[in-house]
């Protein structure tokens, strides 16, 4: 009888472990994981053009340090941002919130981490920071 209890317990633990190992993950294990819920807002700012390069969660101050010439960022209060980078060809006026005279190969869209709202965007030829994981 005691042997059956141990066998049943062992089988239960094995099944629970297998279920846990096969369950879906809701997080990438990074600070940027929560930002992916804001991806539709960022995609809307670039009119669904370009390929997503990556996402980072940074403060407005950090982004301002990396893009000091941007007038919109200069007036933005310090807050947590989800910053999305897209690669493509961006013509003047093609990115909502970006300087309408700029062209470039990358669009960077900053979305407020608290509310799904694009608060700044820039078009550049080079990314100011790393957005993807290197393998």
How would you explain this protein's 3D organization?
By secondary structure, this protein is α+β, with helices and mostly antiparallel strands. It has a domain of 94 residues. Helix content is 30%, strand content 27%. It is built from four helices and four strands; from the N terminus they run H-H-E-H-H-E-E-E. Strands 1-2-3-4 form a four-stranded antiparallel beta sheet. A hairpin with a 5-residue loop joins strand 3 and strand 4. The protein is globular and about 30 Å long.
Topology:
Layout: H1 2-22, H2 39-45, E1 51-59, H3 60-66, H4 71-75, E2 80-90, E3 104-112, E4 118-124
Antiparallel strand pairs: 1-2, 2-3, 3-4
**Cα Rg:** 22 Å
Helix content: 25-40%
Average pLDDT over all residues: 81
Distance separating the two termini = 53 Å
Shape: globular
Largest sheet, in brief, is: 4 strands, antiparallel
Order of helices and strands: HHEHHEEE
Beta-strand fraction estimate:
25-35%
Low-confidence stretches: 11-29
User: Pairing-aware structural class of the strands and helices?
Assistant: alpha+beta
Q: List the strand order in the largest sheet.
A: 1-2-3-4
Features:
alpha+beta; single chain; four-stranded antiparallel β-sheet; 135 residues
Short description:
The protein has 135 residues and is α+β, with helices and mostly antiparallel strands. It contains 4 helices and 4 strands, in the order ααβααβββ. The longest helix is centred in the N-terminal third of the chain and has 21 residues, at 2-22.
